[in-house]
Amino acid sequence: MKCERVYFFAHPEQPLREVEWIHYGRYLDERCKGKPTQYITRRQEFFGREFRVTKDVLIPRPETELLVETVLRLRPEQGTVVDVGTGSGCVAISLALESKPAGDRLYVGLDLSAKALRVARGNAEHLRADVSFLESNLLTAICDSSIDVVVSNPPYVPLGDWPGMQREVRDWEPHLALFAGASGLAIYERLIPEAWRVLKSGGLLALELGFGLSEAVAELVRGWKRVEILPDLAGIPRVLVCKKP
Question: In whole angstroms, what is the distance from residue 16 CA to residue 25 CA?
Fold first, then answer.
């Protein structure tokens, strides 16, 4: 109907036109086949804003908002913030918009997928967020220790979990953004040493945690300072933060 939700509820008597029934039937058929509603409507709310999503990016989850909240609380007043595996750009864009006035901060989103970066750039333009996006395999695009904050919601699902996953996730969301080897630790094992390389002394690392991986990831940051693991609203360890000495 191309109308606001409030109009839809205020006019329950309004019949659908033929073309609207045709679209509804097609969307319903896609949903019955398991296609997530967010990929049908091409939108998902995150941190109070509407983001465009396609099958090339992971659908933003409410629990990832804790990652944003944690960085907003701990980030320095100025410097460069890098979001690794940015996908739709929801983390980097939310950080940039919630930090207004941005001052001397620079926000960068990195992703291996060129298609994902197109989605992220579109979201930044639509939401008027001052974020730069670069194609990069984790942090390989950064050559020196110049970064103040590295934040990431990396792939962390073990490959063995694939058969038992919801079909909406297993069959539709990009596997590049989901799976991380047999243990789920493959990306953490690469990302944490790279973060050490690019962060300034005292720089902040913030990571979303996969279910049951908090202790293993904590072992990977042995030698970092001020290691803290934060639970989400369900009490599940969800975010790990630490600082480079």
Answer: 12
Say how far apart CA 82 and CA 193 lie, in whole Å.
Answer: 15
Pairing between β-strand 43-46 and β-strand 237-243 as defined by DSSP bridges: unpaired
How big is the chain by its Cα radius of gyration, in Å? 19
Each residue of 143-173: pLDDT tens digit?
Answer: 999 999 999 999 999 999 999 999 999 999 9
**Which pLDDT tens digit goes with each residue over 176-193?**
999 999 999 999 999 999
Q: Could you give all domains of the chain from N- to C-terminal order, each with its CATH number?
A: 56-243 (3.40.50.150)
Calculate the CA 203 to chain-centre distance.
21
Return the biggest CA–CA distance within the chain.
64
Contact 118, 74 (CB under 8 A): no
